[in-house]
Fold:
Amino acid sequence: VQLVEPGGGLVQPGGSLRLSCAASGFTFGISSMTWVRQALGKGLERVSSITPGGGSIYYADSVKGRFTISRDNARNILYLQMNSLRSEDTAEYYCAKGWTGTSAQSRGQGTQVTVSS
Structure:
C-alpha cells in the first residue's frame, strides 16, 4: 500500500486548499478512504471518510460545510477540498486506508497545512 499526499502549504484564514492523495498497491476502487489530521501536541482526528462508490460520506463536525471529500476511482486519487480555512485547521493531514475508529491500517507520509496570516 502506498499513499502519497502532495498539496499542503501555507494559507491565510478564510482561504482554500485542495489536498490530493495518489494511491497504489491495492484495489483503490473497492476501498473506503479517510482523511485524518494531527495537530501539534494532539491526537489523530478523523476528518472525513468516503465509501468506494462515494455513496456514503462522513465529516467531522469541525469541518462540516467547509470541507468536501471526493475520489476518482479511474485514477486512484482521493481529494479533500478545504474552504473557509481556520487557524484550528492547522495540522498534518494524512490520507488513510482502513480506518478502525482510532487508527488507520495504512496512511501516507502526511502533508502539512498551516493556516495563518
